[in-house]
Every structure is written in C-alpha cells, then in structure tokens.
Design a protein that fits this description.
There is one protein chain. By secondary structure, the chain is mainly beta. Helix content is 7%, strand content 31%. It is built from 1 helix and 4 strands; from the N terminus they run αββββ. The chain has a 4-stranded antiparallel beta sheet, with no helix packed on it.
Length: 71
Amino acid sequence: MPFQSILPPELLEQQVQLPPRECVSWKGGFLEGTRNEKGQLIIERILSTDPAAYLDPELSPGSIWQEKAQP
C-alpha cells in the first residue's frame, strides 16, 4: 500500500529521541514522569485507583513531585 505525502521519505523515517520515563510509588499508587536536569520528577501521569488522587493539584501533570523520605 503506497504512502503519499508531500514530505521527503527521509524526513518520515527519522525517530525522535524521547527522555526516559520513570515510575515511582507513593501512598496512593504510582506516578509516571521524566527527570529534569536537577533530578526532580516532572509528573506526566498518575496510576491510581483512588479518584481523589486525580483531583489533587500537587499531582497535576507538569508538577514537580516532592519526594518525601519514607521511614
């Protein structure tokens, strides 16, 4: 099946390098995100069964996760 495009084929074959993702656990489930240059986790996604976790402004996408020391 031919693929028709105005872009040259070389441009379509290039792969974009994405930063590595990381999953960390917290009391309500897991947080997925990438690390910035300071080593802080920038939240991209929440994995939780608690509906209230999705309404927490501290866990909104783009926020920086403040990792607390666990005993």
